[in-house]
Amino acid sequence: NDMEHALDAGKVPFYRMIQDWLFYGDTEDLYGEFFVAKVPNTSIDNLWHEMYTLRTSMVPNFIPVSLAQRILRIGKSIDFLRTCCKQEITTQDHSKSNENINSTSLRFLEKLVDYGERKYNKKAVDIMMEEFHLRKNFEAAKKFLFFEQGDFVQALLADISEELNQPAEKIFVHRLRSHLESALLSTGKCQSQQILRRIRVSFERKGTGWESFGLSFHTEAPLNMIFTPTIVTQYEKVSSFLWQLKRVEFTLIRNRQN
């Protein structure tokens, strides 16, 4: 009837905004009508976690909030690929999805979302795994930051123990870095140099060198979307606790040998 036709016609501009977001990770929302909002003055480093937000109060009744959340993630994936991974976003694969561009049915929107998830969410994961070696970075953090690799722990402790027995103010940090690099190079031959360089010395001058020394894990975009400052801080706290346990173990073994 005429009422339904008028309602459907009114939905078309809104659906076009959704399609722009699903295809390009951007949309022209001059009057703040869209349910995805970009937070101004947000650093690129916080693109995934803070740059975009879902305004649930703006989600129309005919779109489930769960579907709106999926729409939000797809657009974020596109912007993430373009901005952080330097990937070109093309329109060559959209022709099939654009056949019913003026459709305002929920079923059609769900198909668009399914398409976007298959194309962009999967592509973001694949690039992080293959091009930026996300799995290998997790493995490096586990082996070196959490001291899982025994020969690395032994090499580091043997090289660095005499330095750390001194008061913190008498220790030169560049010497600690040298010891760390030596231990990494001698025991981390299966890891790329780029990944090994992420393991760095953290040194806060307090008491003895043992109390001041720690390891940290440094990344840049796009890996810092996974290894956020909050996550890295938690990693460093775990690493510090494990380091003290390794110190006790090392001291007991040395005393028994003597």
Question: Could you list some keywords that capture this structure?
Answer:
single chain; 258 residues; mainly alpha; two-stranded antiparallel ribbon; two-stranded antiparallel sheet; 10 helices; 59% helix; 6% strand
Summarize this, please?
This protein has helices at 2-24, 47-51, 65-83, 106-130, 134-145, 150-164, 173-187, 193-196, 209-212, 229-257; strands spanning 36-38, 52-54, 199-203, 213-217.
Q: Could you characterize what this model shows?
A:
With 258 residues, the chain is mainly alpha-helical. The chain is 59% helix and 6% strand. The chain is built from ten helices and four strands; from the N terminus they run αβαβααααααβαβα. The strands form two sheets. A two-stranded antiparallel ribbon has the order 1-2. It has a two-stranded antiparallel ribbon with strand order 3-4. α1 (2-24) runs parallel beside α4 (106-130) and α6 (150-164) runs antiparallel to α7 (173-187). The longest helix has 29 residues, at 229-257. The protein is elongated, with a radius of gyration of 26 Å. The termini are far apart. Residues 95-99 have low confidence and may be disordered.
The helix-and-strand class reads mainly alpha
| Helical fraction | 55-70%
Radius of gyration: 26 Å
| Average pLDDT metric | 89
Order of helices and strands: HEHEHHHHHHEHEH
User: How many β-strand stretches?
Assistant: 4
Question: Any idea what the shape is?
Answer: elongated
| Low-confidence blocks of residues | 95-99
Task: Report the major sheet.
Answer: 2 strands, antiparallel
Name the beta content range.
Answer: 5-15%
Major sheet: arrangement of strands:
1-2
Q: List the total number of helices.
A: 10
Termini, distance in Å?
A: 94 Å
Characterize the quaternary organization of these chains.
single chain
